[in-house]
Design brief:
Elements (H helix, E strand, L loop, with lengths): L8 E9 L3 E4 H8 L3 H7 L4 E4 L6 H15 L7 E7 L10 H17 L8 E5 L5 H14 L5 E10 L12 E11 L4 E11 L5 E2 L2 E5 H11 L7 H8 L15 E5 L4 E2 L1 H23 L13 E4 L6 H5 L1 H10 L3 H8 L12 H15 L3 H11 L4 H6 L6 H16 L7 E8 L3 E9 L3 H5 L4 H6 L2 E2 L2 H4 L1
Parallel strand pairs: 2-16, 4-5, 4-6, 13-14
Antiparallel strand pairs: 1-7, 1-8, 2-3, 6-7, 8-15, 9-12, 10-11, 14-15
């Protein structure tokens, strides 16, 4: 049986929802006694979006999807798939996407009837910050498998860290919705994907288990009631099987899920750097360019998952150096660096070798050639991240929207230009894929309104944030 030819599939349009409130990074830096210049000039941070008390992953998803449907004049009954990537789930069993679906159904029922989403496939996908990219790849294959299929992929998250932690200033919130179909007006996506996965613990949100007795003891200590016999109290609670509260619930240990993660920042940076390199290597092998020609530096623009705005430019030096060998620029780049790349054979200690590599990659990012590469290929995708913060699953897509809207203003890109995409999710996995601008891309991007919306937000002060 002859294999079915793959059709042109991709992203027809995008819509972003960002909360109306934001906190300037300068305000947070002052409250935390941090150097603003290090956060701004070093990490690229300017502001972070703050979800208000009534916003969560479901409401933000619903808002992004509503905008996408309305501006494209879609009939909800024509949408066959609504897939959500999130790590801010509201429920341990019921998909967060169904909470959003309930809101959307209520909104569109007056015009399209109460069952307007009845035949829409809905599900959540979770793999830290890469879940929505997994949903996109899955939906592209589904769209390719039949005629007139419309799918919507959504990334929605509220990125929260403990107050005073090293991740607090990278917080953000928002949702991005993608309309996926055949013959897209915005971006066609090539069928080749690079992937790299390793089971690591750089960032995760485990169920924390605590014994009831320990929890009771902490409460009593805070209440200055240390004379209570906790063992006797536990025995009394266990006397019946009735469930009369959280503590009186027939379990010895309580499982607590917290929105804030356990994370190791430097280790996560290393995982990010290694996974995107490994995924790119996998991509190269598939397109037959493992040694013959550059890939990453041949793309017209690059978009990344950005935990903070300058993450990619700080992590990409290694790949830039590797590809310099393929373009005949290695000697010139070495001259700019002022040192040779460290060789493993010259080191007896692996730790010292790794330190030397880190120093060398950092030196690569200080060269004029690399800085020009960042200005031309990466910087436009950082602008929205600087103003919003990390939106977890939506970060890569926000970078794509930022790049395209800026290029629309600058007039630098033409149809056929390529946008190389680097996705990353802690735990950890990276995916690399290529998108291509379609002839109608300007018309579509003109409807984003991303930066206009960001400029119209409401600033809050530190006491309100706290």
């Amino acid at each position: 049986m002859k294999a079915q030819a793959r059709k042109t599939v991709g992203i027809d349009d995008m819509a972003a929802y960002v909360p109306h409130l934001y906190l300037p990074i300068a305000t947070l830096a002052e409250a935390r006694d941090l150097e603003y210049e290090k956060l701004n000039k070093g990490l690229g941070l300017e502001a972070m979006a703050i979800a208000d008390a009534r916003e969560d992953a479901a409401t933000m998803m619903a808002n992004a999807v509503r905008e996408l449907i309305d501006k494209n004049h879609l009939d909800p009954r024509s949408i066959g798939r609504l897939y959500l990537g999130t790590e801010s789930a509201l429920d341990g069993a019921k998909p967060t996407a169904t909470y959003a679906l309930e809101m959307l159904e209520a909104y569109y029922t007056p015009e399209y009837g109460p069952d307007c989403f009845l035949n829409c496939d809905v599900v959540d996908l979770t793999f830290a910050c890469i879940g929505a990219v997994d949903a996109l790849q899955n939906t592209l294959d589904w769209v390719n498998g039949g005629e007139n299929r419309l799918g919507i992929v959504v990334a929605s998250d509220n990125a929260k860290y403990e107050m005073g932690s090293g991740g607090e200033y990278t917080q953000g919130a928002g949702a991005v919705a993608l309309l996926v179909k055949q013959q897209p007006r915005l971006l066609a996506i090539d069928p080749t994907w690079g992937v790299a996965t390793r089971p690591v613990y750089d960032f995760f949100k485990p169920l924390r288990k605590v014994k009831r007795g320990d929890l009771i003891a902490e409460v009593l200590q805070l209440a200055n009631r240390n004379h209570v016999d906790i063992d006797a109290l536990i025995e009394r609670l266990d006397a019946t099987i009735a469930v009369d509260g959280v503590i009186d619930s027939n379990v010895r240990e309580l499982a607590i899920h917290r929105e804030t993660p356990v994370f190791d920042g430097p280790y996560s940076n290393l995982c990010y750097q290694n996974r995107i390199r490994e995924a790119l290597d996998h991509y190269r092998r598939q397109v037959g360019s493992e040694k013959e020609e550059p890939v990453a530096t041949a793309w017209d623009r690059l978009a990344f998952h950005l935990p903070y705005a300058f993450q990619a430019r700080r992590m990409f030096g290694e790949i830039f150096w590797q590809e310099a060998s393929l373009t005949g620029q290695r000697e010139a780049l070495t001259a700019q660096i002022g040192m040779e790349a460290p060789r493993k054979a010259d080191f007896t200690d692996e730790v010292e070798y790794q330190k030397a590599l880190v120093k060398f990659w950092r030196a690569v990012t200080k060269t004029d050639s690399y800085r020009q590469f960042v200005r031309e290929r990466i910087a436009k995708g950082e602008r929205a991240s600087s103003l919003v913060g990390n939106v977890y699953t939506g970060s890569l897509f926000l970078s794509m929207m930022s790049t395209l809207e800026t290029d629309l203003t600058d007039g630098d890109l033409e149809a056929g230009a390529t946008l190389g995409c680097f996705a990353y999710g802690s735990g950890s996995k990276s995916k690399v894929f290529t998108t291509r601008l379609q002839p109608q891309w300007r018309e579509v991007v003109a409807g984003f309104g991303l930066f206009g919306r960001l400029s119209a937000r409401q600033v809050i002060d530190y006491p309100t944030y706290e």
